Amino acid sequence: MDVEGVAILARGIAAKGPEGVVFANLDLRVDPGALVVVAGASGTGRTSLLLALSGRLPLITGYLDVSGHVLPAQAKAVRQLIRPARVRPVCELENRHRVREAIAERRLISGVYEDEIEAALAKVRIAPDRTALIGDLHPAERLLFAVALTIAAEPAGILVDDVEAGLSMSARAQVWAGLREVTRTGMTVLTSATDPPSGDVEVIRLPAPEPDHRPTKVLDRQGVDAP
User: How far is CA 189 from CA 64, 136, 137, 173, in A?
Assistant: First the structure.
């Protein structure tokens, strides 16, 4: 698996949800093949930022370029480049399905072959029982299975929301190790978490929203080039 990952450049971006502005005045740059963690407490806009960076949530202002595609005009192309493995609660595997059913469905939808699924499972270091219900898998294996199904089609980037949910410390370590293996293919991995791991990750830390919900400057990273 050898993938050309997405590069992202954002200047002054902001997005709005049903309850108001979720992030604003945000600058960032992501290099291809990076493991990125959008970090912050629940309600800080982590999921919204993942959706915006992948062309799935419209911006209300700012400049956003994903591998040469400028949003919102080229949002459809960006959605093809960056695929969601898990975005809670709208994109998760069905617990009532069996592993073999989920594989068959993904092969039908994405056109991937069995050996590509096998290579993806090996990449994240799992070998789930094909007869098991997805809901019966360990939470770490369930998440990595969702990642494997997504990377089998070799997108340029993936989304993995709420990485730590329901995981013990050892299980978190297993999942982060699997995601690092994915980045070694060149794929860009965009995640969200409350407590990002140490080491070779790029952290975008979001503050708690202000009580009056006014737009606030949520990130001021050094070394961001002009578009």
Answer: 17, 26, 23, 16
Q: Residue 125's domain is classified under what CATH number?
A: 3.40.50.300
Q: Please check whether residue 2 lies inside any domain of the structure.
A: no
Q: In this structure, are strands 188-193 and 35-39 parallel, antiparallel, or unpaired? A: parallel
- Structure tokens that stand for 58 in this block: 């419209």
Question: How many structural domains are present in the chain?
Answer: 1
CB atoms within 10 A of CB 200: 9
* Reported pTM: 0.89
Planar angle of CA 147, 150, 162, nearest 5 degrees: 40
Could you report the per-residue pLDDT of 146-181, keeping only the tens digit for each?
999 999 999 999 999 999 988 999 999 999 999 999
> Domain range holding 196?
8-203
Q: Nearest to residue 109, comparing CAs of 98, 117, 118? A: 117
> Which tokens belong to 13?
């971006």
Q: Do the domain assignments include residue 108?
A: yes
